[in-house]
Write a structure and sequence with these properties.
Layout lengths: L2 E2 L2 E2 L11 H30 L3 H24 L12 E3 L4 H11 L1 H21 L1 H4 L5 H23 L11 H20 L3 H4 L1 H15 L6 H5 L17 H26 L8 H19 L6 E3 L1 H10 L4 H15 L2 H8 L3 H26 L4 H19 L9 H7 L2 H15 L16 H4 L9
Antiparallel strand pairs: 1-2, 3-4
Length: 459
């Protein structure tokens, strides 16, 4: 493909309808690219909270269903909700730490209660008042958030690679070997191949590791055999409770998630050589919030746009929103089958760990790239980087350091993403500099117009 003034040569434009067989294949490619990271969040949180295989499968099922519904809404819109753009939706790594810790401390009812209340409330306000909020989240702030999300997940990935916390064979050679096999295959395909093979490198690595685990007798198909083919979602499957601290925590994380969505919407419209208009940004944010709240009512974690799928649009030159609509329908259909969720839940911990380790590293690397490309590393910005990452990693590695604080403060400030984002936001806002919205920032100039869009935590 060639570029002309930032616009790529599109094979299918926004409203084009490729033939149905081609639409199905292109839609399946979108599904394949996002399937592993989308279900990874459900898998990690379920493991942290200690859910049974059946409950884990149900959450995976709900994640797929509401990812599909949100994708269809983004492609076709419902009133003011939806961007009418080819945006694939799925669960975001932004929420994994809070959902895990709050779920373990307060129960999943508090997690889903907080999402139910804050999802549309927070992102609805952001969509309504977006022009006022955007300058507070320049690449320095959003990049730091993406970095800490990736770094925070590395120890989680290592625990899975060793067999899972509490496993009797934790650290056994066969566990480490399976994780290494997945990592090796995925990295080799990503670095030394092109086209579809590179795009699906993580999925192929996972498949190779899964086959190896089958050969070692480490896969239990019992839950799959017991699961039904079709099931209707259950409202309030895990109950609801409305605790102030979890709600404040998720409200802040939805603010961070909104900035990711803005970046992905901008990335998609860049294929046409333009920035998104206010209706597209507002509709995209409204979809984030409303579908996250609706999904929480049935046991799904928050949905947001996926950067890797925005990358596929630019890579393939297929911008048709109808192709993404097909992908959304496929995801929704998969989400109506408990057998699909149960099948995903059979992935052994070390196989899953090898894939998550790669994804976590790529998330951190994409955040670093965002910072380094769009931020001068002068004294001011180096101090903001040092303090934000230092506090975030400090909390991630030594959470007991704040054990003397009240329980509510431990919950809120015990989240590395919250600490890093809040520190970067405050320091960048009140310290004079080019990226500060209060001092030297150029007037009437938005991030969406001047900066590369922020990388999503789902990469």
């Amino acid at each position: 493909m060639t570029e002309t003034d930032g616009e790529i040569d599109l094979d299918y434009e926004l409203d084009d309808r490729p033939p149905l067989p081609k639409s199905l294949l292109l839609g399946l490619q979108h599904v394949a690219v996002m399937l592993v990271p989308a279900t990874a969040v459900a898998y990690i949180v379920a493991g942290a909270v200690g859910l049974s295989a059946g409950d884990t499968a149900y959450i995976v099922q709900m994640v797929l269903l509401f990812s599909g519904l949100a994708t269809v809404v983004q492609a076709y819109t419902v009133g003011p909700i939806g961007a009418k753009l080819p945006i694939v939706m799925g669960t975001s790594f932004t929420f994994v730490g809070a959902a895990s810790s709050i779920g373990a401390s307060y129960g999943l009812g508090a997690v889903f209660g907080a999402i139910l209340v804050t999802g549309f409330l927070v992102e609805g306000v952001i969509g309504w008042q977006f022009d006022r909020i955007e300058p507070f989240f320049p690449p320095l702030v959003t990049g730091l958030v993406v970095i800490i999300i990736g770094l925070y997940l590395v120890p989680v990935a290592m625990d899975y690679s060793a067999g899972g916390v509490g496993a009797s064979d934790y650290g056994a050679a066969h566990n480490v070997g399976l994780a290494a096999l997945v990592l090796f295959v995925a990295v080799a395909l990503n670095l030394f191949t092109d086209g579809v093979t590179r795009l699906l490198s993580t999925l192929v690595g996972l498949a190779v590791g899964y086959v190896a685990a089958l050969a070692l007798g480490l896969v239990d198909f019992g839950p799959v055999a017991q699961a039904s083919w079709v099931a209707v979602p259950k409202p309030g499957a895990f109950g609801f409770s409305f605790e102030p601290v979890p709600m404040v925590t998720f409200a802040f994380l939805f603010l961070v998630s909104a900035m990711e969505t803005v970046g992905d919407v901008s990335s998609v419209t860049a294929a046409e050589g333009r920035t998104p208009d206010s209706d597209e940004l507002r509709g995209g944010l409204f979809t984030d919030g409303l579908l996250s709240s609706l999904g929480a009512a049935f046991g799904a974690f928050p949905v947001t746009s996926f950067s890797q799928n925005a990358g596929i649009v630019n890579f393939t030159g297929v911008m048709s929103r109808h192709v993404v609509g097909v992908a959304g329908v496929i995801l929704a259909l998969l989400g109506l089958s408990p057998k699909v969720g149960a099948a995903v839940a059979t992935i052994p911990s070390p196989v899953f760990g090898g894939a998550v380790l790669l994804m976590a590293g790529m998330v951190a690397a994409s955040g670093a790239r965002l910072v380094f490309l769009h931020t001068d590393l002068d004294r001011r910005n180096m101090v903001i980087l040092a303090v934000s990452l230092g506090l975030g990693l400090g909390i991630a590695t030594r959470p007991d350091a704040i054990s003397g604080l009240p329980t509510a403060a431990q919950t809120f400030f015990g989240e590395p993403v919250v600490v890093t984002a809040l520190t970067a936001l405050v320091l960048n806002t009140f310290t004079p500099g080019d990226q500060s919205p209060l001092f030297d920032a150029p007037p009437e100039e938005s991030v969406a117009e001047t900066e590369e869009p922020p990388a999503s935590a789902d990469d």
